[in-house]
Amino acid sequence: MTVAEGISWPRAETGKLDLRRKTFDSMAKAYPPIEPLRQLRYIRDKLRSIQLSVGRDGRNRTVLWPFSSKTSRTQPKAKHWIFSPSVWLRFLIKPEPGKALAYIDYSSMEFGAAAALSDKHVSSNNPMFDLYRSGEPYLDFGKTVGQLARDATRGMPGVEAKRDQLKVMCLGAQYNMQALTLSTPLGVTYLEAHEMLQLHRGLFSQYWHWSEDWLHHSLSSGMMRTVYGWQCATGITEFSENTIRNWPIQSTCPDIFRLAYVWGTRHGLTLIAPVHDAVLLEAPEDRIEADVALMREIMRRASRVILNPTADGTIELRTDYKIIRYPDRFTDPRGTELWETVLKLLAERRARMAETVKEKSA
């Protein structure tokens, strides 16, 4: 496959192909045709350990373990949580008759949080926030650094895959990921990755000034804190430089999300699952649009409270959403092919079993 697709696969020190899971993760981001194979290997390794607890009402429940990570995010055990294993399993999620589900997700949240945290640092000009306000920061960054044509838009051939690669690059660059590490998921040479990182540092110099100051202050004070008081001690032996740079972004996002979740609950919304930077909401089918609009407004205001005002007004994070009405299922484009394959295999198995029963009865 690697030869036919023109893919240069990483090798281990022994010279053999590197088949570790993290290698498949990064290669699948660079080369989308590998994604089904990655999911298949993941299922093979994890399916036996999956222990989803499903009650008589058809709902999956597990302990979410809030504040379990250093950044204060929830960390439910992967084998017990429907959103943790391979994405094709999410197709099992389906609203009840008369009900609808909505998946509401902060748009480019980590990029927007990084822009907000570094805003007004050193200078009043913040290209990072300007790109966030454009609505497509990763596409616009690609256009700025010459990776995409100026007229490129989502939906055009090859643009979506390139956008995903640029997203990996931008988020990796924010916590100082190096060119050698980034070159594989980006599907580019070391020199190309190095050039893109240099362009990132030049374009977003304000962010990098802030990031350097945050690193030095955190190491000298021995402590990191968020606006709402979540804190974590630092030390050369306890944290890497990249972890310290990334911590304020990863910790500010949960602050925002928790505030939105509390407000949503107080407004009587039925929030049935936090999913990283998103929420799964349930409502009667005739009320779903109104509840989605209310939750999106709550999420916008929560981001406004945490991410302080700027000279241009107020930094607010956008949200995207999709509504799933009965009898449709929750879908994820990354798992569509594998879900359809599973259904096909199940149908073939049922047909063989029915044929076997028919032959025995004859």
Structure write-up:
- With about 350 residues, the chain is an alpha+beta fold.
- It has twelve helices and eight strands.
- It has helices at about 20-30, 35-45, 110-115, 125-135, 135-145, 160-175, 180-185, 190-205, 205-220, 240-265, 290-305, 335-360, and strands at about 100-105, 225, 230-235, 270-275, 280-285, 310, 315, 320-325.
- It has a four-stranded antiparallel beta sheet with strand order 4-5-1-8, with helices on one face. Strands 2-3 form a two-stranded antiparallel sheet.
- Strand 6 (about 310) and strand 7 form a beta hairpin.
List descriptors.
362 residues, alpha+beta, DNA polymerase, domain 1, four-stranded antiparallel sheet, two-stranded antiparallel sheet, 12 helices, 10% strand, globular
Brief summary:
This protein is an alpha+beta fold and 362 residues long.
Shape: globular
Distance between the termini: 46 Å
What fraction of residues sit in β-strands? 5-15%
Helix content: 40-55%
Q: Output the helix-strand order.
A: HHEHHHHHHHEEHEEHEEEH
Q: What's the CATH architecture of one domain?
A: Orthogonal Bundle
Based on secondary structure, the structural category is: alpha+beta
**Helical region count?**
12
Gyration radius, in Å: 23 Å
Mean pLDDT across residues: 86
| CATH class division of one domain | Mainly Alpha
Number of strands: 8
Strand order of the largest sheet: 4-5-1-8
Give unreliable regions as ranges.
none
The fold-level CATH name of one domain is: DNA polymerase, domain 1
CATH superfamily of one domain: 5' to 3' exonuclease, C-terminal subdomain
Largest sheet, described in full? Answer: 4 strands, antiparallel
